[in-house]
Amino acid sequence: MDKRFTFKIDSKPNKSKKTFTGDCDIGVTQASSPALAAETAALQGKDNMANEHWDIVIVGGGPAGVVAGIYAGRSRLKTVLIERGLIGGNVNNTERIENYPGFPGGIEALELAAKFKAHAEEFGLVITQDQVTGARREGKMNVVETESGAFHGKTMLIATGSSPVKLGCPGEEELWGRGISSCATCDGPFYSDLDVAVVGGGNAAVEESLYLTRFAKTIHLIHRRDQLRAVKLLQERAKAEPKIRFVWNSVVDRVWGKDGVEGLELRDVKTGEKRNLKVDGLFVFIGLKPHSDWLGDLVEKDKDGYILVDRDLRTNVPGIFAAGDVTNKLYRQVSISAGEGARAALAAERYLMEQWEMNE
Fold this sequence. Notes:
This protein is an alpha/beta fold.
């Protein structure tokens, strides 16, 4: 079941390259905890896992899901984590993280993701790569449906995160995480005294533009209309900021650069005129989409699809918890998601003790 590959990543700013070689197991991860090794060693395929009953089924392998798995495994709860891609979630979409505790000087994002995975394995978390297609209730049990079968859990933790809405222009996919970002708090400090562009006209775009003034030399705020949609107070602050320059009635048709962003091809939506804008980085804030459609109406969500939870990260359905960016539309930070994952796991453990016989 093991497959290994090498990550090759470019560190910020776009001046040097570093290579990190790590192992990532695709499929079932064997437990390294002696207490759970015998049990998890028997789970050699997805069919077997799908026939098992779990204490906790975690959906999503970002910081919230992995930390929840660490806490659950350490509490000797029978736990499986289902992730469709790489462990780390949106951590894998950036290059370097400088504000996660314990790593003075920062750490390469993919290296941090690999450490998350190794730490979770240490406590016996079973990880499987699969695509989740739906979920339902069967009495008190939660059933997570995947392409390879159904996973039955006494509790379920939803940690599927959210993704930024992208521009969809040439060059974006190739340079995402290598000069294109959707988090000024994460990546703004990399652009000290450099020129950057921000795309968007709502509150998030304006707030992040104002934040970037702490670092960047110039911020080109690109919007497809001739006025912002942000609240008036934010508009006034942005217009009073000399570092922010507005580019009205424009869209990005192409992002260009070799090892990082070097410039944008802009198009005036009224005249059709095209021009190039040289920048060192691009921040995209045109919306976020939480990954919650697969749940249908199983749990309560807000109008944007974010899952509603209480202070203990419980949904409106007993035994179903949610943590991380799938619940949080404001603060998308690794530390916050990790903390929520820990809280959700502790809440799930309490629920199991109160509502289930632990050895049932």
